[in-house]
Amino acid sequence: MVRNWLITGGCGFIGRNLILNLIRSDEFYIRIIDNLSQGTRQDLAQVCKFNEPDASDLNCLGDLNCLLAGRVDLIVRDILDAELAIQASANIDVIVHLAANTGVFPSVEDPRSDCMTNVIGTLNYLEAARQQGVKRFVFASSSAPVGECQPPIHEALAPHPFSPYGASKLAGEGYCSAYFRTFGIETVALRFGNVYGPLSDHKESVVAKFIKQINDGKDLEIYGDGTQSRDFIYIDDLINAIRLAANASDCGGEIFQIATNRETAVSELASELLIMSNNVNIKQDIKITNSDSRPGDVKCSYADISKAKRMLNWRPKVSLDEGLEKTVEWFGK
User: Fold this and answer.
1) Residue 327 above 70 pLDDT?
2) Is residue 209 included in any domain, yes or no?
3) What total number of domains does the chain contain?
4) Which of 62, 71, 173, 257 is deepest in the core (most CB within 10 A)?
C-alpha cells in the first residue's frame, strides 16, 4: 500500500478532501505543494494539523526521519519551480498532481498562462518522479481534451480539444503516456467529471456557484439556454477513485473516465438546488436567467465509466440527489 504521498494543489477543494480521507487512518505521510492561489492555510487547517518546513532549507525532505505516519507538511511554492519539484519528490511513493489552472473560461482569457501552469507544471513533477524514483503518478485531467462529441465520452475517442484548457490537459495526458513508455513511471490519468461537494466554497464551478448565489439571494445565471449537460460526480466517489488509482496494479499509462455515466442539464440542476434550499423566503424571489454561451464550452458531456469499473474496480456510490443534499447542507453550516 502507498505510504508517502505528495499532493500538488493540496489546499484546494479536491486536495483537502483527499487529505481528510487519508488522515482518518493515520497511516500516511503527506507532503503538499501549493502556492495558495486557490486555497489558504486556514482552509487546510480545517481538515488537518500541518507543519510548514523552512522554504529556504528543504534538504530535510530527504531525511527519512521526517516521514512519520499522520504527519502533514505544507510547502508554499509554485509547481513551476522545477528544482523544488525534485526536492519535494524525495522519498515519495505516489505523486497526485492536482495543481492546475482550472476551467475553460480562464484558459480562453489567458491561454499562455494556462499552458505554462498545466503543461510545464505537469512536466516538472513527471521529471521529478523520474529523478527521484517515484513509482506512481496520478494526474488530474478532465473530459475537456476530447472536445465536442456525441456522448457518452470514452477513452478510445480521438481528442479534439474545444478550448485551451482542453489542449493543456491533453498535453499533460500525452506527457504521462510518454513518461510511462519511455521511463517506466506508472502514470494514471483520471478524467474527472464535474466534481462537487463539501469544502468547495472557493470553487466557481456550477454547483458551488449556484448554491452560493441561492444563499446570497441572487438570481441564478445560466450561460446558454440551460439544455447543456454535464456529468456531476460527488467528491467522496472521486477520492475513492484517486486512492484506487494510486494502488491498483497493471494500470500504468492508462486513462480513465471518472464520472457517473449520468447526464444532467444545467437548468435541471438549478431547479433542483432551488427546491433543496432551506431558506424559503429567499428562494421565492430568485429567478433563473439565461445569458450568452461562453466560448470554449461544449454542449453536452457525460462519460462511459466501464473501463474504470473493470480495471480499477471503481464505481460511484452517491446519487446526484444525495450528493446535492449533502453539499447544500455543508454550505448552510
Assistant:
1) yes
2) no
3) 1
4) 257
